[in-house]
Write a structure and sequence with these properties.
With 415 residues, the protein is an alpha/beta fold. The chain contains 14 helices and 19 strands.
Length: 415
């Protein structure tokens, strides 16, 4: 089978990082990612099954890894060589020999490792699992970063039964591949108390930013959403997903001051948004987000940040809370979203919690989020795919995905 594989070669990571900072498009070619022919992994026990991807998305964290720009924080939490791909819709064969389409919930928590649940897994917070270095499989925070499991950028990988969710027959593959990133966006929005928020900003309108806008509008229909988007395709998508106002990054702070009648003194302003979702994760965007947020407000880091240099004086002075948001797990079923959960038939357990993934599955098709998948590529065309994903906004793309069933374009032309 074919699989795109990341190898632990520091020289290739360094070269990819240097090349990615130039106009060259060769950073992927000379980086740590290669296309291999390899034998499918065998399930270690009956709790694991083979999955054959239909679509697997290219996430911002994947791009950062392949281009050598991700934070080195994750190195001890990853096992090499690994096959990326954690946004996956796949075919699996179940016990009754029937073929089923599923989406993958990629966290490699205690259950996947053959371990009793840790303190976090006991309360359903599998995204905070304490055992990601332990157990029957090698270390890794998720499928797509663990050498034992493989990942979605391949023709076959291993999935633990606790990771798979069946999807409705009516759901398209494109809607389905958006479930995982939409679950991330839902979790980001549910990190705040929606009942106390009137005005929010979403800084960045790539995939995560657009999905955050969609999540906000779904969970809080009356909230005022200002989306910050740079490119034409992003602006149109943000508006269609529920943004009340779409503005350019260059006028973000000015818009924040004007809409809240704020006074200004240098980078200080007297008021701003109740909550700002930073969906970019760079030093500049974090600084902008803090500046545009009202005293006592929150900045939610929804996009994966790298190593950042940020002046925290305004955070301290204006008592702004910086909130991390990683993946998804179990969420509190507040009164604010009670009607939505009931209409979506999402189960709430005895402790008043529900699984983020279940709500994401229920809403993805309804919101037609598959429309955000603008391009699909064969595994052979991985250089073109990743270069497009890395420049998605400027080139009119949004979500780029691999279709491992596809043949290389030139091979199809020969037939």
């Amino acid at each position: 089978m074919k699989a795109l594989t990341v190898e632990a070669k520091l020289r290739k990571f360094a070269l990819a990082k240097v090349l990615s900072m130039t106009p060259s498009t060769s950073s992927v070619k000379y980086g740590p990612l290669t296309l291999r022919d390899s034998e499918p992994k065998r399930p270690p026990n009956n709790d694991w099954i083979s999955a054959k991807p239909r679509l697997s998305g290219i996430c911002g964290s994947d791009i950062a890894t392949v281009l050598g720009s991700s934070s080195r924080y994750f190195e001890p939490l990853t096992s090499f060589p690994f096959v990326p791909g954690h946004e996956v819709v796949a075919d699996v064969t179940l016990d009754n020999d029937s073929l089923s389409r599923v989406v993958l919930e990629p966290a490699l928590h205690c259950a996947t490792r053959g371990l009793p649940p840790c303190r976090m897994c006991q309360v359903g917070e599998t995204n905070r699992c304490e055992s990601i270095l332990l157990g029957e499989i090698k270390k890794g925070i998720q499928t797509g970063y663990c050498s034992s499991t493989g990942g979605g950028w391949s023709q076959e990988f291993l999935a633990h039964r606790s990771q798979i969710h069946s999807i409705p027959e009516s759901m398209s593959d494109k809607d389905a591949v958006m479930v995982e990133p939409f679950a991330c966006a839902l979790h980001s929005v549910l990190r705040i108390d929606l009942g106390t928020v009137n005005r929010v900003a979403v800084l960045g309108s790539g995939t995560i930013g657009l999905l955050t806008t969609a999540a906000l509008r779904s969970l809080s229909p009356d909230i005022e959403i200002v989306a910050v988007a740079k490119y034409t395709t992003q602006k149109a998508a943000a508006k269609s997903l529920g943004a009340d106002q779409v503005i350019e990054p260059s006028v973000f702070n000015k818009a924040s001051r004007r809409s809240s009648a704020s006074m200004r003194g240098g980078s200080w302003q007297s008021h701003g948004f109740d909550v700002t979702f930073d969906c970019v994760g760079r030093s500049e965007s974090i600084t902008q987000s803090i500046s545009a947020t009202a005293p006592g407000g929150k900045v939610v880091l929804a996009g994966m940040p790298g190593t950042s240099k940020v002046d925290l004086a305004p955070l301290w002075h204006r008592e702004i809370e910086l909130v991390g948001s990683y993946a998804y797990g179990s969420e509190k079923a507040s009164e604010t979203i009670g009607d939505l959960l009931q209409s979506a038939s999402v189960a709430v357990d005895g402790s008043g919690k529900f699984r983020t993934f279940e709500l994401a599955i229920a809403l993805c098709e309804k919101l037609s989020l598959g429309n955000l998948v603008t391009h699909t590529f064969s595994l052979d065309n991985y250089e073109e795919a990743i270069n497009l994903a890395a420049q998605a906004g400027a080139r009119g793309a949004i979500k780029v995905a691999f279709d491992p069933r596809k043949k290389r374009a030139r091979e199809e032309e020969k037939r």
